[in-house]
Amino acid sequence: MVNQMKANPRTFGKQKSSSQPLKFLSYAFLVLIVIFLYYVIGSSLHSSIDSDSHTLVSWVEMNSTTPNSKTKTFISQLRDSVNFLPGIDLSSSSSSSSDESETWVFFNQKGEAIENNDNSARKTFFSKLRDSVNFLPRIDLSSSISSSSLPASRQQDKGKHELKALITKLQNSVTFLPLKDLRFKKTAMEGHTWFMSSLNDTYEENEAEYLYFPSENSNGRLLCIKATTRVDGMNNSYALAWPESLPKSAKFLKGLSFISSTYYDYVNLWHGLSAFAPFVGWSMKHRCVKPTRWLFFVQGSPQKTTGSWLQKVMEGNFGDISIESFQEAGDVPYCFEKALVMRHDLGHMGLNRKHEVYQQIRCNARSFCAIKPEGKGRDFNENGVPNIRLTLLMRKGSRSFKDPQAVTEIFRKECAKVEGCILEVSQSEDLSFCDQVKVLTYTDILASTHGAQMTNMIFMDQNSTVMECFPKGWLEFAGIGQYAHHWLAAQSGMKHPDAYWETLDKIECPRPKDASSCFNFYKNGQVGHNETFFAEWIRSVLKDVKYNKEKQDANNFAVCTCQ
Prior knowledge:
Elements: H1 2-7, H2 9-50, H3 52-63, H4 69-80, E1 104-107, E2 113-116, H5 119-131, H6 152-172, E3 177-178, E4 211-213, E5 222-226, E6 237-241, E7 251-262, H7 269-285, E8 293-298, E9 301-303, H8 308-318, E10 334-342, H9 351-368, E11 388-394, H10 404-416, E12 421-427, H11 433-441, E13 445-449, E14 465-470, H12 474-477, H13 484-492, E15 499-501, H14 515-522, H15 531-550
Parallel strand pairs: 7-8, 7-10, 11-12, 11-13, 13-14, 14-15
Antiparallel strand pairs: 1-2, 3-6, 4-10, 5-6, 5-10, 8-9
Helix pairs in contact: 4-6, 7-8, 7-9, 8-9, 10-15
C-alpha cells in the first residue's frame, strides 16, 4: 500500500481529500455532545446544590419509617432554626493611615474588579472573615434513614432515636444573644431598643408596644434568659427555643411572667410608675390577667427589688408580688412558659388610654387602702357649697421651701377668702403609702415643690389641679426633665396649668457655660417664694376650681375595670 502511494501520488491526494470532511463532521459531532452533556449535568448539579437541604429532608421523609406529626414538626423546626448571619461589612475599612502601596483587588457580585490600595482594608477584611466564622451543629440526617423491611418494633425504636436526635439538634441550635446591645445606646428605649434588640414589637392601636412569647411572631418559641451578672447587662443574654427542645440544663418557669426593662430605675416613683403602667393596660385588655412572677431589668441587669412605693402600687393592682431573682448558680438559662416584655414605658399608648390606665391604678390603690374606689364624690359644706380641698404637701431637705411657715401662711390667708376652701398641710416623709393615697384622694388642689412626692397626684380624682414650685436655676439648666410632672398630670387626667420658677438673678455656678455642671450646682437647692406671685396664683387657681366644682356632674366618677 505504501509503495502504491509512492507510485501514484495523485491517487493518494484524492483519497486524503475525500476523507477530510468526514473527520471534520466527526469532531463537530463530538463537540456538540460534550457541550450538551456540560449544560445538562451542570444544570442538574446547580439545581441539586440549590435545594440540598430540602432534598435531604424530603429523601429522609420518603425513605424512613412513615413520619408521625412529631417528626414532621421537628423537621420543620430544624428548617426554621437556620440562622442567617450578617454579611461582611467593609464600610469601616474606608479610611486608613497605612503608607503601603500594595494593591488589592476585590470582586463585586457582578464579577467586576475593584481595586483597593488600603493595606488596613486587607487586614480588616481577613479579621472580619475570621469573626464571621460560626460553628453551628452539623445536622446529620443519616440516622433518619431506615429500611421498611425492619420489624415493626425495631422501626418504632428507630423512630424514637430519630426524635431524640432531632431534639438534641434543636437544643444545640439555640443561639443566645447579648441582652443589652450597645449599638443602640443612643436610642436605648426607642425602636428595637438595646434590650433584646433583634426582636420586633407588637403594635396595637392606642396601646404600649410589647413582646409576647410564645406567639405567631416568635413562631411558637419560648423566651429564655441567662442572667449571670447584675453588674453589666452585656454579659447577660436571651434566646428563643421551642417548648419541646429547651436548652440543656434550662430552668422552666410555668405561668405568665411580666418582664420590664428600663434605662432608669424602679426606686424613683416617677420612673418606676412609667415602667409599671403599661402592664396594667395590657392586663385590662386581657381579662384582667395577673402574672405569676415579675422580672425587672435596668440596662440589661436584673433587679432583686423595686422601691417600696412602687411595690405597694403593684400589690394594689395584682396582689402578692413575686420577683424572680435568678438565684440558680452558673450559666443557667431560665425559660418562660408565657412571657410579656415591656421595654418602652408608656411608649405609643394613646392619651385617653393613659387616662383609663391611671384610673385603674388609682381605683385599685384606694381599694387596697380600704378607701372608697370612687373617691370622695360630690363634697359640700353645711351651706351646700362645694368644698375645695387644698393640700400643701411639704418635703424635707433638697428642693424644700426655704421658709415653709411663710408659704403656709400665704396659702392659709388665700384659702380663708373662698367659702368651702379647706387647707391641709402634710409632710410627705411622715406619711405611709396608704396615708398618701388617702390624703390625695381627698385633695382637689395639690401644691408642692418639684420632687418624687408629687407622683402621688395620680391618686386624686381626674380634673384635679397641680401647683408645682422649682428652685432657681431649674428653668435655665434643667432641660426637659423638669416637665416630668406636667406630663404625668396630662397622662393621669389632671390639670397642671402653670408652675413657679424662682428667679435666677445671676449665674453663680463655677462653669456658667456648662449647662450640665450648672444644673448639678442648682439641682438640690431650696425653693424661695414671692409673696405677691403666690397670692395671685392661689386666688386664680381657687377661682377656676370653684367654678368647675359647681358645674361638676354628680355621675362623673369612674369605677374600676379590674379588681
